[in-house]
Design goal:
Elements: H1 11-31, H2 46-71, H3 76-83, H4 87-94, H5 111-116, H6 131-147
Length: about 170
């Protein structure tokens, strides 16, 4: 029997898991729009509402990406350039994403607590309260996703595609 110990993550690692979690949630939610078999039961405006939800989730992913970049030491100048903004505009628009003061703290009680306020999942209360456990669940999700992609040259051989890089 293999015991899986939930890793303790620091703030930088928890922020990165936050980006991975957002990507997974967006992929899962967007996949629900692929099938056409239930279109006949869709009410007027359903497609717009679902696309709008994906847009909202994408904006949260964008904010989490800014958090990770700042945690990695990326300068505000680089972030501003990425958005075609001045540094002042970028700080005004994304300053709330600067969680660098929590980088060296316990990820679960620091960064993850902040990210939990904007859980990307469209299902309320479904975000795991522990970033280490969320990372392990992402390992499983990523492996299952790639197992379902035959012939994908990017298929990863590691059983720990998320946790291995933390």
């Amino acid at each position: 029997m293999v015991l899986h110990v939930t890793p303790e993550l620091d703030g930088r690692q928890a922020a990165r898991v936050g980006v991975s979690t957002a990507c997974k949630e967006i992929a899962d939610y967007a996949a629900t729009m692929v099938s056409t078999s239930d279109d006949v039961h869709s009410a007027p405006g359903d497609f717009l509402a679902r696309a709008q939800q994906i847009r909202i989730m994408g904006l949260e992913l964008l904010h989490r990406a800014v958090t990770v970049e700042l945690m990695r030491g990326t300068a505000w100048e680089t972030i501003a350039d990425g958005f075609g903004l001045t540094v002042e505009q970028a700080k005004h628009q994304f300053g709330h994403c600067d969680l660098t003061h929590l980088a060296d703290q316990n990820g679960r009680t620091g960064v993850w607590t902040v990210l939990a306020e904007t859980c990307v999942s469209p299902v309320p209360g479904s975000c795991d309260p522990d970033p280490g456990r969320a990372a392990q669940q992402l390992d499983d999700w990523y492996r299952a996703y790639h197992d379902a992609q035959p012939g994908d040259p990017a298929a990863i051989t590691s059983r720990h595609a998320v946790t291995a890089g933390l």
